[in-house]
Amino acid sequence: MDIVRCSLQLLSLLFFFISSLCVSGTESRLPKLGAVRKNIRPGLQFASDNSVSSDLVTFYYTQTLDHFNYKPESYTTFQQRYVINFKYWGGARASAPIFVHFGAEEDLDYDIRGVRFLVDNAPRFKALLLYIEHRYYGKSKPYGSSEKVYKNASSLGYFNSAQAIADYAAVIIHVKKKYSASNSPVIVCGGSYGGMLAAWFRLKYPHVALGALASSAPILYFDDIAPRQGYYSIVTKDFKEASETCYQTIRRSWAEIDKVASKPNGLSILSKKFKTCKPLKKTFELKDYLDSIYAEAAQYNDPPEYPVSVVCGGIDGAPSRTDILGRIFAGVIAYKGNDSCYDMDEYKYPDETYLGYRWQTCSELVMPIGHERDSMFQPEPFNLADFVKGCKRLYGILPKPHWITTYYGGHDIKLILHRFASNIIFSNGLRDPYSSGGVLENISDSLIALSTVNGSHCLDIQAAKPSDPYWLVQQRKTEVQIIEGWISKYYTDLLEYKDKNGAR
Asked: What start and end residues bound the annotated signal peptide (predicted)?
């Protein structure tokens, strides 16, 4: 009910945002990040999982609103949620490690139930598990309510990655002090945007975290380091490899949608053909919906279901005389199920992830993702000028497309990080469209790139299952061995330090 209530409260705000965006002429398709695929319809509730919830203890930390200024308003505080699982911890006296999961652009509960790598490996390391929610999401909202949080750019001004990782540092230090665990090594982990935060945290706070696992973290998809067409070129590749005929059908479908729409009552025909819950007002609504399905299927193309094959199975499996759009709709049914109608706004509901991600991409997370001519989509290159106009109209502020690389780096990453950075695992699945912005080659002996040809978005940090293919099992095994090596070296250093300094 909380999610439904939040959706209703934010509906008018979202209507303003979408209306403003349409007026600006900018209708950008920005594929969402997110460590786990989830149904984003309002009212979603997680299935009860007593085995998970019974081991978790929820706390709130009085967090500083602004870590980087000393104005009176900077000292404003809010309650930041963090969750601890003590079940496996060997204790502070044994200097047992602390595994920290960084929440990202959603309620922390999604990751607690979906990201299970740390839980699966905590017994082996006797680790304390710490989950920290990202500011402005879930129950960690400054200003108290969603309406105040998303009111305008002034209330959103403290909503950025630098503040978020400063939050994480403060919480980790607080927890270590609270449980007298000053000598417990910290390993941070995150997926997708959370993976970027984990990598950046290790670069900015090496005194707090011994190492980082950054899963599917597209830290190079900024400032034109990665090719703009990278994301959708991999989506295209995934579909083409699954089925050449499916790929060709999708490629031809966009012109067919335009052809039907140009007829008298064309939008009405399309609405009936695709059983839309509301009459289409323009072809963009349908195209954007289909685009989102294809991108989501490719991004989370997990075994054993392999959603891309599911979509293509529906398209290719339609009766022989089915027309192009009929085949496309058959793919929708195969992926979404046989519903009474299909909501073209399903991927744009006014939840905090949608609104928060829109702000983040309009401020600092400017990823120039676009459709180029060599993909299965209609050409629609990323246009920075139009993007800037849209964000200006939405929030009254201009995006900073070069800030991420200014603050965290990214250019010439192999040359730069080789000398000063260490202990980061960059893991990627090459079927994940976001891997086009990931680190895919080793930078040094301790800056390791682990990629799997058939892997998908953040697959390595999801729960281990008996059905997992061998290559996935091996990827996780390698990650554990690397982390084990970091911790072993730390313990050696700790003993030498104690011997030299007579410390207890």
From this structure: 1-28
